[in-house]
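Students often ask what a holo structure prediction actually looks like on paper. The answer is less mysterious than it sounds. You provide the chain, you provide the ligand, and the output is a string of discrete structure tokens encoding the 3D arrangement of the protein together with magnesium ion.
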Amino acid sequence: MKTLIDEQELARGVARMAEEIRQRYGDQPLLVIGVLTGGLMLLCDLVRRLEMPLRLAVIRASSYRGEMQRGVLKLTEDSLPEVAGEHVLLVDDIFDTGHTLDALIRTMRERGATSVASAVLLEKSGTCQVEMKPDFRGFVIPDVFVVGYGLDYRDRFRNLPFVAILEPGDLES
Ligand code: 5GP
Ligand code: MG
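The corresponding structure tokens follow.
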């Protein structure tokens, strides 16, 4: 496994994002919504660096990848918090095609959020298929498959404290 972003770099990146978020929102109350499962590590590290009054929630979301249904979002309804009148900050692991975040942001707006912004740890370069970009991001990476710090391969490797590029030999064990 090849380390792409080590623990120290991750910590610096998250601190930088938190500073940008503080500058954007000041003391305004925020509803921070983490996207399960990949967004968990960033969610935990990020909110501990924020000082405005905030509420925390998590949602499970996945966007279908079938040709006919690109961008159709599957949301676990019972976990969706009331967003009407709130400044919402979505926190996810990685922005790849962008369909997941794009659909989530639309949903939050339809449900009456006052504002919706997004923060991702990683943004892949050259893979975006939507009109929007994340408002806050930790790192831009090349178009490679990464694991660690929340990101999985078949539900493994989320616990790695660094971000790594998965190599064929890593899957044998
Ligand atoms: P998007 O809708 O932006 O294409 O997809 C974002 C989701 O795809 C992420 O939340 C993540 O679950 C998954 N994903 C995209 N690229 C990677 C990657 O390099 N590694 C892992 N583990 N998941 C990825
Ligand atoms: Mg995800």
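The pocket of guanosine-5'-monophosphate (ligand 1) is lined by residues 38, 63, 92-100, 145-147, 151-153 (CB under 6 Å).
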